[in-house]
Amino acid sequence: MDWFFPEGIYTIAMVGSFVLGAFALKLPIAIALAAAAAVGALCGGAGFPIRHLVEGTFGYLDTILIIASAMIFMKSVQRSGLLESLAARIIRLFRSMPLMLSLGLMVIIMIPGMITGSSTAAVLTTGALVAPVMIKLGVPAVKTAAAIAMGAIYGMIAPPVNVPAMIIGGGIDMPYVGFALPLLVCTVPLAVFSALLLVYPYLKKGAGDEEALEEDLSRMEETPLTAGLLMPVILLAVLMSGEQFLPSVWPPLGMPVNFLLAALSSLLTGKKYNFLEASREAVNDAIPVLGILMGVGMFIQIMTLVGVQGFIVVSVLALPAWLMYFGMATSIPLFGAVSAFGSASVLGVPFLLALLGLDEIMVGSALSLLAGLGDLMPPTALAGIFAAQVVGEENYFKVLRHCFFPAVVTAVWAVVVIMNANTIMGYLP
Amino acid sequence: MTLIYRAIVLFILLLVVACQFREKDFWKQTTAALVIIPLVLRLLMIK
Amino acid sequence: MKIKGTPLTALLLLALALSVSALAATEFKSMWTDDLFVPAPGFEKHMLSEWFDGLKGTPADNPVYIQKGEEPGGTVLILGGTHPTEPAGMMAAVLFLERAKVSRGRLIIIPQTNIMGYSHTSPQEAHPRSISFTTADGGKRTFRFGSRLTNTLYEWPAPDIYIHPASGQQLPGKERGNINRCYPGIPDGSPTEQMAYGITQLILKEKPDLSFDLHEASPEYPVVNAIVAHERSMELAAMTVMDLEDMGIAMRLEPSPKNLRGLTHREWGDYTETMPILMETGNPVQGRLRGRTDEKLALTGVDKAYVVASALGRLYIPYDGKQTIEYRAGRHTTSILAFLDNLDLLFDDKGVSVEGVPNLAELEEKGLGFFLSPAGR
Ligand SMILES: [Zn+2]
After folding, report:
1. Where in chain C are the domains?
2. pTM assigned to the model
3. Would you tell me which residues 339-368 of chain A have a C-beta closer than 8 angstroms to some C-beta of chain C?
4. Among A260, C9, C169, C259, which residue carries the largest CB count within 10 Å?
């Protein structure tokens, strides 16, 4: 009881008021989170701490700049006609090779996540690009979204850039070096599995309606796919890879600048459109997610302030050894509901410390995989929400339902990797 | 570089405010207000 | 709960958002004022820009205090506040600054090494903004409690990946604001890298024989209650650890890892001729297992989450329910004094003699505030 009181009560108050706000009062998730944070502070005897509530939001200031500019980029290439035209071309090229096409689509989805370390970037760039293609090829919209969400998460965890792994490593002063192969071990089998599960069956069946497809294709090709039209995508790829692979000579522009430059370049090609109007619409689509991140920031700061964070972390660490692996496979993704990066920091680091006998790089990689799953966890579910958005599905829970099985397999794989970390590391060069 | 990023913050801030005024739902307007706070403080280089 | 939104409600909400921003702004700005230090007689105040003029007029220019004894001897450098979330490191340096009487050799002190980390606190850490002590005459001394990293305003935008210039080591981009990942620093780098460069220049020019970088670490982190020593400092450190053992102070001795770059104990050793020593005490307020986070936790280290974690065998310090700042700062001062004794023993002409600085027992008996100058009422 001593352990439970009062932090347990605060936990219940915070989670309770969130559930009440989000589900009973049907408030937007962002508002429910902010209100729950305020309730937690009040219960915890901190009054209405404006400084803490506002300071918490700054944990995601850079993230909201990235999301907003990525959304503007996506809207721009949609308006210029590039998105549809490129999708049509890909379908024509690979229609007759379903296996190659499923795996290829998965890789295409993963690439921006690999380079930027952000699942959102993956969903909103190549995810948005392949979504119409996959639907035309006969993959149901929700399965398309599920495949995009899973691919985006594997991309975010796959090397070269994996922010949760950097956060977890940073917590024990482990440099982000030598992670490439362990991260591939963590992600490649799962990416193949998800492609085979969610995409391949439909491509193989050729479930698409050939005539309708042909009609759609010719409509999509209305704006001819010239090198000029492709410029925004090429520019973005160049900017992102330049920053990643030539860090010593390339100016560190950062993702927001990269996205905005690429978006602006789309004005020079394809169909004419109003950039400001497109940007406003993009930001309008993004506001719910930006708001959720602000709410999450407040929530975490208050959790830390009133002691809920320590209560949760130590409670999880107190689990008996046999429950420990189960505990990490569930608590890290669950906490990811608040934020995948937050989860990596709050839970990933203590678990890594608890597992110090095993190879740290392998364990850190697998823990980052679990943290990545957090991007599927409602209410934030960044990967799920955006994936639903790119296929035009309003209820993202329908998408998450199809992610459930691959996600469980992912969590199990992460635990298997952790338990055998030293053995696996022994096989790697 | 900092100046460029301040300009981006300003750009996004103005877009959020524009959306806030066109929005027909009070709670979505409130969500926009949440986003405005850190953008303003960073634009002015206070936090 | 549906409510209609109109341009009027939008205007009201915008006004509300701006008022909240204004209120929050006054709180954030309250950390922009420098702390007051009352150096002991004999200290001269310098600025870091005297060793690297690129820092002049920038937020990275930082006070450096020097006291020279009557007798010639060696030179010792003490850095506190490399990480502003580790207050015992700063307070140990402050105790030397406000109490030390140097009779032989030279003492150089930088109490708030990353001074750019003191003007803000990190998001989502919920740390207190200051810690206060009651002085012997009942007055109050207050010091800021900042962030592990340089104020975001000076390092924004952070790169996605921070590439350590001297080695190519990759770290999360925000670590560019961690001065203890930036050494030896570069003259045209980011503000934090420039500051690290300034400190390296100071060491090259003033040639301290022995240089301390005072830290604290989470109780659940293996390198805690520890001395980390460069190869060159190892013999001296080993002697000191044995002396501390005799005084009942258990201390781990860790060799500076060769592949972890940008840290004082590695780069000062490789790029200058000083003997670098980094010391860590156990500090619950920076740990990830901590419960309620406030000034009291920073000062007392009393935390029930750490009691449970200790019972679970998760900690690397003996934890009896508290870790007071007196105990933590006292470990630092006592260790430094023991180092000074051994410096004299090992290198005849390099000795530095310092009186007046309280050791662990004195701090625990009288409280840290007792040893601070009664100023700043
Ligand atoms: Zn430190």
Report:
1. 38-371
2. 0.89
3. 342, 345-346, 349-350, 353-354, 356
4. A260
